[in-house]
Amino acid sequence: MLPFARLTIMGLGLIGSSIARAVKANMPAVRITGYDADSEVRARAIALGICDDVTDTPGAAVIDADLVILCVPVGAMGGVAEEFAADLPAGAVVSDVGSCKQSVADALTAVLPGAIIIPAHPVAGTEKSGPDAGFATLFKGRWCILTPADNAPEASVEALRTFWQRLGAEIEVMDARHHDMVLAITSHLPHLIAYTIVGTADDLQGVTQSEVIKYSAGGFRDFTRIAASDPVMWRDVFLSNKDAVLEMLQRFSEDLSALQRAIRYDKGDQLEALFTRTRNIRRSIVEQGQDDDAPDFGRKH
Ligand code: NAP
């Protein structure tokens, strides 16, 4: 049985278009309606045939939906929800895919009083944006974290769980604030570090940009993949998950200072102990199927 029959996707970029493709592949009987603020994206979604219908307004998109998923930058969630609030059918489940959960839950609750709101975050993505970047298998074997409020109807939470499982995802349910703390260290801080390193290299006097690019295989290019991620999406993530990111940044700065001291005072044992511990983390990620074991991320040489 289908968990939902009429899906509306707000925002047809990388994640929204991937959901549409994955639903077409795994639950073809579900009717998909799409909306995007950008008319070129709407036209592209029609050309790609990823939705059954693409509307020109958010209200028209939700009119008969039983599940609405918001796939816009986290700072835009409340505004989009406000635009369709008057047309949302009673009993429809409203969810999202935002990378921060507490701020989105607060924004949606404020503009959709009485609605069934179940925030979610598929921990899957790439550095690309837009409807052409999506693909049907993006969520396969990846985690999708649901952060329902205490009063969310259990049947709706279960239906959303089934929906994501049908797209290939594994499900975890957790508190929104805990989600934001976990993702601050596993996703948000790594992006901040990548943006910083790439920015610092770009600013370096005495090392030319052509040298940075020429010798990037030394490790730099792995940071550039993350630092190529969507600027608007990541601006919103840092502003929306400010407290958790600042807390993790503080810890990171202290650990960095400790490493700085270890290098200055030739504490090789300390460096080696840390590097051995971190290598084991990489092994665990591979063992749990969250990355491939191929050397150099499977690049062809
Ligand atoms: P994306 O490819 O840039 O797509 C977002 C789409 O939403 C764009 O087409 C954008 O149009 C549209 N949009 C922006 N504001 C809107 C509004 N007010 N109303 C309707 N449409 C609007 O971004 P994405 O990577 O799919 O990210 C979408 C969400 O997924 C974000 O909340 C992000 O935190 C979350 N997420 C991303 C990843 C990832 O790796 N990328 C992973 C997990 C979760 P414009 O062309 O006008 O900007």
In short:
The chain is 51% helix and 11% strand. The protein has 301 residues and is α/β, with parallel strands linked by helices.
Task: Describe this structure as you would to a colleague.
It holds the Pfam family PDH_N. It comes from Sphingorhabdus profundilacus. This is prephenate dehydrogenase. Pathway: Amino-acid biosynthesis; L-tyrosine biosynthesis; (4-hydroxyphenyl)pyruvate from prephenate (NAD(+) route): step 1/1. Belongs to the prephenate/arogenate dehydrogenase family. The chain is an alpha/beta fold and 301 residues long. It has two domains: 6-174, Rossmann fold; 178-289, 6-phosphogluconate dehydrogenase C-terminal like domain (6-phosphogluconate dehydrogenase C-terminal fold, Orthogonal Bundle). 51% of the residues lie in helices and 11% in strands. It has helices at 14-26, 39-48, 58-62, 77-84, 102-111, 154-166, 176-203, 209-214, 220-227, 231-240, 242-264, 268-287; strands spanning 6-10, 31-35, 53-54, 67-70, 93-96, 116-117, 120-122, 143-146, 170-173. The protein has a six-stranded parallel beta sheet, with helices on both faces. Helix 4 packs parallel to helix 5 and helix 7 (176-203) crosses helix 11 (242-264). The longest helix is centred in the middle third of the chain and has 28 residues, at 176-203. It is globular and about 65 Å long. The N and C termini lie far apart (47 Å). The relative contact order is 0.11. Bound molecules: NADP nicotinamide-adenine-dinucleotide phosphate. The site of NADP nicotinamide-adenine-dinucleotide phosphate has 29 residues, from helix 1, helix 4 and helix 10. Residues 10-16, 36-38, 41, 71-74, 76, 79-80, 97-99, 122, 125-126, 129-130, 230, 233, 237 line the site of NADP nicotinamide-adenine-dinucleotide phosphate.
